[in-house]
Amino acid sequence: MSTQKFKSVTTLLTILLLMTYHGAIFGQQYQCSSLDADPPPVNCGSLAHYVPGETDPIKTVRIALHVMQRESPAAKDNFDENNPAHVAYLNDVINRLNSLFSDCNVQWCNGAYLQTPQEPDDSRIRFDLTGIYYHRDDAGYNNEDGSYGNLYCYDNYGVCKDEILNIFLCQIADVTSGYGPSSHVMLFNLYDDYQQYGPNWWGHGNLLGHEVGHVFGLNHSWVSYQSYPDMCQNPQQNGNWCYPGPNATNCTNNMMAYSALNDFISPLQMARMHYTLIIPIKLRLNVA
Ligand SMILES: [Zn+2]
Predict the structure, then answer these.
(1) What's the pLDDT tens digit per position in 214-248?
(2) How far is the CA of 246 from the centre of ligand 1 (A)?
(3) Radius of gyration (Cα) for the chain, nearest Å?
(4) From the CA of 84, how far away is ligand 1's center (Å)?
(5) Which residue, 228, 215, 223, 202, is CA-closest to 95?
(6) 112 CA → ligand 1 middle, Å
(7) Alpha carbon of 177 to ligand 1 centroid (Å)
(8) Mind listing the pLDDT tens digit for each residue in 178-191?
(9) Domains delineated in the chain
């Protein structure tokens, strides 16, 4: 992306919610500190041509997870390759990412779910986990300077950068959060969240989906309201913490919002991601 505007990190309201949804328990709200991508270079009329159909070919994106651990002899303080529960959780997060992109929820808008069966719930985008890498590196553990945009992990540990979307799990002095520039994804403090709330693969998978959405060219849903008119959210409803319910008329469940339920992907958002993926990834990810 040529013009990059960094969104300031706002204070997270760490509110514990427990709710059964899609058979999963999710815990808390997550913060995204990603830059807002440029608006789509196509208008909605032409973008509509990229809305996926049920029989359209699936685009599979190869991904790699990198777990940044403390150096020996200190404890790893992050997910451990020798702990089967940790490894299962990491795989579950990726499974949730795939279920979000293959069977997303319907849209929550103006206090109710909209029953629009003609809209696709399958983005026709899938993710193939090529490997989980574990790195004992104190600098990488903290993402070097602890900032969201530091490229230490990406520069030193990213694999096959022109073919694989590299995802890094670090621990920094901030909240559970993510960052999604065009080249890679950073996820912060998932291990802390895991220890405190348990294996919330559903919420963490949605957070990962949000960041992947940024990588694939999506703005936050309130920013791009004018570009994606099928979104419920308007620019005044940035919804840093909103929780869909009967009285939540200003709330959304859009994947690109800050909502309790980020499990809806609009048709035009799907289209925008397909449009981005048509661009050769090695050109798009060449940000050095
Ligand atoms: Zn974001």
Answers:
(1) 899 888 887 755 556 566 776 666 554 566 565 56
(2) 26
(3) 18
(4) 30
(5) 202
(6) 24
(7) 9
(8) 998 888 999 999 99
(9) 20-36+49-284 (3.40.390.10)
